[in-house]
Please model this.
Amino acid sequence: MPRLDYQEPRTTGELLELLEALGEDCTILAGGTDVVPMWKRRNTSAGHLVNIKKIPQLKEVSYDEENGLSIGPAVTLREIINDPVVSMRYPLLAKAARSVGFNQLRNMGTLGGNICLDSKCTYFNQSAFWWKSRRNCFKRGGDTCYVVKAGKGCHALSAADTVPALISLGAELIIQKRGQERRTPVETFYTGDGGKPHLLDKKEVVTAILIPPSGRGWREGFMKKSPRGSVDFAIASLSLRLKTNGKGIDDARIALNSVSSKPIRARKTERYLKGKTISHPTVREAVRLLLKESTPLSMVGASALVRGHTIEAVFVDLIDMITDE
Amino acid sequence: MSKNEYSVIGKRLPRVDAKDKVEGKALYSGDLSLPGMLCGMILRSPFPHAKLIRINTEKALRLPGVKAIVTGEDTPKVKYGVISRSPKYMDEYPLAVDKVRFIGDEVAAVAAIDPDAALEALELIEVEYEELPAIFSIEEAQEPGAPRIHDHAPTNISREFHIKTGDVEKGFLQSDLVREDTFKTQSSIHAYMEPQAALASWDHNGKLTLQTKTQTPYYVQQHLALTLGMSPDRIRVIKPFVGGGFGANSDGMHSHDFCAALLSKKAGRPVKIVCSRDEEFTAARRKHPVTLTMKTGVRKDGTIMARKCEAILNGGAYCSLGPLTTVLVGTFQTLPYGFSNYQYDGYRYYTNKPPCGAMRGHGGPQCHFAQDVQMDMIAEELGMDLMEIALKNGLQTGDRSAAGFKIVSSGFHECVKTASEKGRFREKKQAKKNNGKTAYGIGMGCGGFPSGAGFYFNKTTSAHSSVVIKADEYGGVSLFTGASDIGQGSDSVITQIVAEVLGLPMEDINLTSADTMLTPPDMGTYSSRVTVAAGNAALKAANGVKKEIFKVVSEELDARMGDLVTHNRKIFVKGSPEIFISFADAINLYQIKNNGSPLLVKGSYNSPDKMSPTYSFGVYVCEVEVDLRTGEVHVLKMTVGHDCGRPLNPMSVEGQIEGCIQMGMGYALSEDLIFEKGQTINPSFLGYKAPIANQMPIIDIHHIITEDPAGPFGAKETGEGSIDPTAPSIVNAIYDAIGIRFKELPVTPEKILRALRKKKRGYGKKTD
Amino acid sequence: MEKKLIEISVNGERHEVAVKANDTLLEVLRDRLGLMGTKEGCSVGECGACTVLSNGNPILSCITMAMDAADSEIMTIEGMSDGDALDPLQEAFIEHGAVQCGFCTPGMLLTAKELVERENRPTTKQIKEAISGNFCRCTGYVKIIEAIQAVRK
Model:
């Protein structure tokens, strides 16, 4: 393993001080399931590993009827899956958390870590030795992209599975830096630039994930499809929420990830579905719009063709599942 | 003795080493350490083809903690290769001397006090390369004027092999139907769980001990001697526990073995090299991708009249066992069907990709995939099914295959009938299920495989396998075998055989295996030879011990030798167990009558046939569900009819079949080493899609007992042949489900979706 | 690189170990404590061979920083049996032929241990989900699943 230093702040205040002082040179260590493998491949160079799991405030889960759910970034995916409040009131999130990686990764990985998952690319995520054989890509500070050949920037895949669920639930992030706090919807946290996928300053850290009360009348479903089951990064992960009355769809929330360089909030498809009833023609048109909004990429184990077909199949299955209830 | 009377043969016994393994006590090569041990690492070429101009190790040597560095200049510059009978196949230097020929080719090695220092040292070694034009595909290799990869191969052909028997043209003329199809298979890799590792140390007399992950310690010893310029008797190679081999470690020495040894000599301290998983996927041996153009002629009743096959193998940068693969793609396709007119032309090309060697089935998975997909197509055209074709043409006991394989026992027809019946093949073929979202299909695949190569790779006077048994005065038995247990359970099977013959419980037998100083020579674990070869050697030795014991006991009990039996640590006259002599007492009797000489008996085995002593057979009936929308294939069930003569340990045999099905499924559907200009794009467990637990089908195994006369207690191989029927059965099932023939592996969702689109014209949206 | 003294609890015993910031838990277990039962299959958290239990939960020790493990109770395969008797899962693996080369076995057993403690009679689906991060190339998983199913609390 390359050389590094390790810090273990005990309060949020200490953490923010550290980030202020070390900034560029820091990497947040939550579960480590993303950061440590990249390190071992000598793919990153940050000198300070800052462990946030010993800060009690960042491991809290709290809920009240008025404000909804607040989850600390260091809460593990396992803890989220097992949390009774999450299971009861936000089963969509539990389902999404359950789809991440595999058993051991869910015990280690955190919600904050998943939200801040680095973008993934077949080419970028290789070892230092591997990169000796070719020119650096944009994400490595070079001047080319091996996925989008004539591309002018990095198109690395946004691949976190909890994100579509969070977006469709209207989740927000509290982001702090020393002396400052801001809120941002999860939906707008992503840049679409694989080289710098998150709107997060090097001195900032996510300190809470807020999910508003889920409201009445929503039916929801989440599905992830990947080559071998959850072990692999997704071909597509989709979160669907429909507010229905007896006659049709009042409202819709549709979000996807692992199809492109940023998560997709399929607003056009949502707008189309409002006021419609579920029928074959409606679903067909919704699929057409969804695929247009998704702009699927060929990378990380799936081609655009397979992604497109998979998005369609998942969407149709989720509609069937939700409307059968 | 009928099988019902066996004590341990045929029983579902735990492996002799299972307890050590579940307790975490089994030590593999990477677990070993010696006092003062250094950490070794290898520097590899980032270029697929380049001249090695200069290596400067000065800076690296000055790094604190670095104790030794070696490059090709520090070596005797001797080439090696496992098929050492034929010097033209010895084309590899352990460390590059003049050129590097693939990304990952070994250039230098470092020994340092810890991995951090070793890694840093590698970065400080300055290598000057002059890049050369590189070739990666067969087409590029075949181009006139293509870059020459090895001086001795002007057309980049590393081996060609031809078979001509009967009259193929006449055979085609006599056929009612002739089909010619081209099939392509991919580069897949063993992906065993234990990365390769080697620990080398030298004693004060200049003798080398190497503990290494290998399937062939005997060959490692020879290759080390050759490349280090030493006599083999000054080298001891020991195989610790091995975490899966599947053929990757069957070609003797690898570079890291050599580097560990040379570094250790230079540093004066033990050196251990553990390969990383990246190195495994990037540089280790892998399966040959093969393009097969197969032409088969049949009569309208399904009888095969002629076969002509051209096979082109992309061999990568060095030979390894590739020259043999070139032969086997040709010979293995003469199993399990009989035909007299056969022509095979096989060509193996060098390219600037990692070297391909042997991988489970060794040519069989490639040609059996092609053969049974083609036979399924032929069956359909004739209005028959593959079951009928298989029964029509299947080899029977006493037959000879077109390549000259002598079929000593064949349960093939029983396999076909059993798999079909238990898998309800014909019945389920009728019941088509396509609900618009998924389609169900059922398909068959057949195979046969040798139980060990009957020939030698090297020049030697040693038998293929030898075993020594020492029985001591306390009634304990020590068993010495060169056979390598790599997880397939050979230690257990050999122990079972000896235990059965001597009437002892398994725990009375102490087995020492795969240590070139202590155990007699054994060619190693490959071509699925161990049960038959080492098993027979052990059987001979055990019978020899029994004979000596019976001589003294017959005198003592005043009984005929032929009336004596061994059972439960006793020797007695059949029918009168109350009058017995204990095993320990019998040994002591022997010693008394032989001036105190210990009872030591050896047994050796050579294949009676120059190709192989005998052949196993297997037939799989596979059920799949194809998701028409996503292209995913779920393998629902595999029904297996398997003839391994007699399963000496049915649990072990099933374990091998189940493992073969996992590997065969991956081969058929998802495993593929993807390259761009000679660089592996998916060198990781995440990128290389080997099937995981949730993808496994229900597996229903039926053992067909044929009691082979060549095998110990009637046994034949299982570990390799069981992979062959998997891919064709899956691909044929996919055809049954969606009416599309796939002739290229792996059959990925991408390929299925494209084919479905093409077939249905306008199905789905244009998404790309 | 500077070393720091940490206290780590493994199989019920407390150890004092000097670790560098870049040491992983796997390196500490194997190289410092001599517990070779935990294996390194890939070193990047993709194969499950390095699985140990941390506070009862299966984790990947090859991507866990040693310093991060200081406050946890770690169980390795060496701690699975109580010295005399094997754990029922270990017995089941032996009896059902779930062990071939054995390299995946320690990680697989510990993952299975947490599962059977959580679910008394896990279904095939639950078992497959629990072990999908433990790769095996020998057994095809069939007898591993059978062995886990055979264990009842």
